[in-house]
Specification:
CATH superfamily: Amino acid/polyamine transporter I
Number of strands: 2
Helix content: 55-70%
Strand order of the largest sheet: 1-2
Structural class: mainly alpha
Length: 491
C-alpha cells in the first residue's frame, strides 16, 4: 500500500481522506467528545469549521475565573472595572490573531500541532525551556488554586443547607480541610488515568458544569436586582478611608487585574484548537474570525457576571460570589451551583495536570531507560468495566504530586490571591510574549522598524502590569499567612 503522506507531498494523491500532512482529514476533533456535544446541541452539519472553533474557544475560556470578577470590579469601580476587562479582551484577541499566523512553520509551511511545538520550532531551545517553566509553574499554581476553590464550594453546599434549616443568622461554619482532603482523594484516583485520551468524557462534563454555575450566578444576581436588593457601589469601587486604606486600595487593584488576567488564560490551547480546522479556507483566516467571535461572547458573559455581581453586593463583594453567601435562597440552587463548581474543577484539575505528569514520566523514562518499575505496565482487570494498566512510576509520582498540592492548599487557602497570582504569572509569557516573538519571526519583521517597536512596547507594558499584579498577589499571600494558623481554614 502507498503512504498517503508521500503521495500528498508528490501531488499525486487525489483522495479527500487525508490532509496535506498525511493525517486523516480534520473534522474538528478536540478533547474527544466536544464536537459531538456541539453537534447534538446546535445540529451543526459539519466539523472543523468557524462555528466549532468558536465553540471550542468559548468552552476553553469560561471557567472558574468568572467567580472572582464581582470582587475584581468592586476593587476598581463602575468605570475602570469594565474598561480594564475590555482592555484585557482586546489585547488577548490581538495576540490570538498573531498566534493564528504561527500555526504553520514560516519556512517549510509544516503544521504545528501544539503550542509547545510552535514555540520550539519557531524560537528554538532556550525560549522553549522558558515556555516549559511558565507552563509547568502555571500547572502547579492551578492545581493549588483549584483545590482551594473546590473545597470552598463543597463547604458552601453544607452551609447552604445549614442556613436553610437554622436561619440566615446562624454561623454554620465548617472546616475546609476535610473537603480539601476529599478533593485530593478524588484527584488521586483520577490521576491514575494514563493520558488525555481517557479524559474526554471528564472534559465534556467539566465544560457543562462551568456554564451551569456561571448562568446560575448571573440569574441569581439579576433576580436580586429586580427584587430591589442593591449593594453600596461607587464609580471608583471600594473607597479609601471607608472600606480600605490607600495602600490596600492600590494592592487590591493590582490583584484584581491578576484575577481578570486569569479569566482570559486560554492561549495555550489556541494552536490545538486551530489544528482541528479543515484545510480550506486557510486555517489562520478562520481562526482569527473564531477568536473574535469567542472573545466577544465571553467578554459579554464576563461583564454580566462582574457587573451584576457588583450591583448586588457592592463594595462588600466577596472573592467568590457563589461561596460568600450574599445569596441564601433558593438554597438548593446555591448548593447546585457549588456542586457544579466542584465537579468542574475535578475535571479541569486533570486536564491541566496531565501535561505535567507526561513531562515528569517521560524524563524519568529517558533517564532510566532500563528500569522495569518505570517501563512495565501490569494489566489489572476491573470487573464490569475494563482492563487497567498499572504502572509503579505513575502511582508514585502522581500520588506525591496530588498530596503535595493538597497540603500546600491547606497551608495557603487564599482564593483571590492565588487566582491573581496564577493569572498574572502566566498571562504575559503565554498570552503576550510568545505569540509576539513567534509572529516577529514568522512575519520577518525588521528589527527596530515601527511595527517591531510597537509589538515590543505592547509586550513590555504587559510585562510591567503582570509583574505588579504578581507582586500584589504575593504580598496578599504573605499578609494572609501572618494572620493565619496552618491547617485551620474555616468557611
Amino acid at each position: 500500500m502507498s503512504n498517503p503522506g508521500s503521495s500528498l507531498e508528490n501531488g499525486t494523491n487525489n483522495t479527500t481522506d487525508f490532509d496535506d500532512d498525511g493525517k486523516p482529514r480534520r473534522k474538528g476533533w478536540f478533547f474527544g467528545l466536544f464536537d459531538d456535544l456541539f453537534l447534538v446541541v446546535f445540529s451543526w452539519q459539519s466539523k472543523g469549521t468557524l462555528l466549532t472553533a468558536s465553540a471550542h474557544i468559548i468552552t476553553a475560556v469560561i471557567g472558574s475565573g468568572v467567580l472572582s470578577l464581582a470582587w475584581a470590579v468592586a476593587q476598581i469601580g463602575w468605570i475602570a472595572g469594565p474598561l480594564v476587562l475590555f482592555v484585557f479582551s482586546i489585547v488577548t484577541w490581538f495576540c490570538s490573531t498573531l498566534l493564528a499566523d504561527c500555526y504553520r512553520h514560516p519556512v517549510t509551511g509544516a503544521r504545528h500541532y501544539t503550542y509547545r511545538q510552535a514555540v520550539k520550532s519557531t524560537l528554538g531551545g532556550t525560549k522553549f525551556r522558558f515556555l516549559a517553566l511558565a507552563q509547568y509553574s502555571n500547572f502547579i499554581g492551578v492545581s493549588i488554586g483549584y483545590t482551594i476553590t473546590a473545597s470552598f464550594s463543597m463547604a458552601a453546599v453544607k452551609r447552604a443547607i445549614c442556613f436553610h434549616k437554622e436561619g440566615h443568622k446562624a454561623g454554620c461554619h465548617t472546616t475546609n480541610n476535610k473537603f480539601m482532603i476529599l478533593f485530593g482523594i478524588a484527584e488521586l484516583i483520577l490521576s491514575q488515568l494514563p493520558n488525555f485520551h481517557k479524559l474526554s468524557v471528564l472534559s465534556v462534563v467539566a465544560a457543562i458544569m462551568s456554564f451551569g454555575y456561571s448562568f446560575i450566578g448571573i440569574g441569581l444576581s439579576i433576580a436580586q436586582i429586580i427584587g430591589g436588593n442593591h449593594g453600596r457601589t461607587s464609580l471608583i469601587g471600594v473607597q479609601v478611608g471607608v472600606d480600605v486604606t490607600l495602600e490596600e486600595k492600590i494592592w487590591n487593584i493590582l490583584t484584581a487585574m491578576g484575577n481578570m488576567a486569569f479569566a482570559y488564560a486560554f492561549s495555550m490551547v489556541l494552536i490545538e484548537i486551530q489544528d482541528t480546522l479543515k484545510s480550506g479556507p486557510p486555517e489562520n483566516v478562520v481562526m482569527k474570525k473564531a477568536s473574535l467571535i469567542g472573545i466577544v461572547i465571553t467578554t459579554t458573559f464576563y461583564l454580566l457576571c462582574g457587573l451584576t455581581g457588583y450591583a448586588v453586593f457592592g463594595n462588600d463583594a466577596s472573592g467568590n460570589f457563589l461561596t460568600g453567601f450574599g445569596f441564601y435562597e433558593p438554597y438548593w440552587l446555591i448548593a447546585l451551583a457549588n456542586v457544579c463548581i466542584a465537579v468542574h474543577l475535578v475535571g479541569a484539575y486533570q486536564v491541566f495536570c496531565q501535561p505535567f505528569y507526561d513531562f515528569v514520566e517521560t524524563q524519568c523514562a529517558k533517564t532510566w531507560p532500563a528500569n522495569k518499575l518505570i517501563k512495565t505496565e501490569h494489566p489489572i482487570k476491573v470487573p464490569l468495566l475494563c482492563t487497567y494498566n498499572f504502572n509503579m512510576l505513575r502511582l508514585v509520582c502522581r500520588t506525591i504530586y496530588v498530596v503535595t498540592m493538597t497540603v500546600i492548599a491547606m497551608l495557603f487557602p487564599f482564593f483571590n490571591d492565588f487566582v491573581g497570582f496564577i493569572g498574572a504569572f502566566s498571562f504575559w509569557p503565554l498570552t503576550i510574549y510568545f505569540p509576539i516573538e513567534m509572529y516577529i519571526v514568522h512575519a520577518k519583521i525588521v528589527r527596530f522598524s515601527s511595527k517591531w517597536i510597537l509589538l515590543k512596547l505592547l509586550s513590555y507594558i504587559c510585562l510591567i502590569v503582570s509583574l505588579l499584579a504578581v507582586a500584589a498577589s504575593v504580598r496578599g499571600l504573605v499578609v494572609n499567612v501572618t494572620s493565619f494558623k496552618p491547617f485551620q481554614s474555616v468557611s
